Amino acid sequence: MNKKQIFSLAIHLLASVNVDGPTLIAMRRQPDILETMERLPWLRFELVEHIRLPKDSSFASMCEFGPLWLDDFGTGMANFSALSEVRYDYIKVARDLFVMLRQTPEGRNLFILLLQLMNRYCRGIIVEGVETLEEWRDVQRSPAFAAQGYFLSRPVPLISLEEVILTL
Q: Which residue numbers delimit the EAL domain (predicted)?
């Protein structure tokens, strides 16, 4: 194995794609897409928050695609009702909710309690939009699994990813 292959295996890189429910359901009817997805075990789908989830069995079977993430919890349709409709691998908390709850001591306590509750419904919580050291420290003190945001890294070309991860 070369150095890059070892690095990729060691850090378990994943790629996520934002998709809405109807598109994900339509993809089930495309054999070539299903075949491609079987060859991409590192691919994850983030269900975008702004759609109402269908109540039929086709939506419930979306997890056949593998781990499903909920994007932007705390905005639009990504709320507690979404947690009762589909089992998500990871839930990403929207920056707007994170910032709002950080404004008061009560809000900071509620943030911790909210993440504790949400952790019962998934494998982990990812806080979106971490832009300052203070925000990063708040995430580190919380029951969040991970964070993303400009404080940790600006978008980078794939070729630079190894360097960014090693400096974190």
A: 1-168
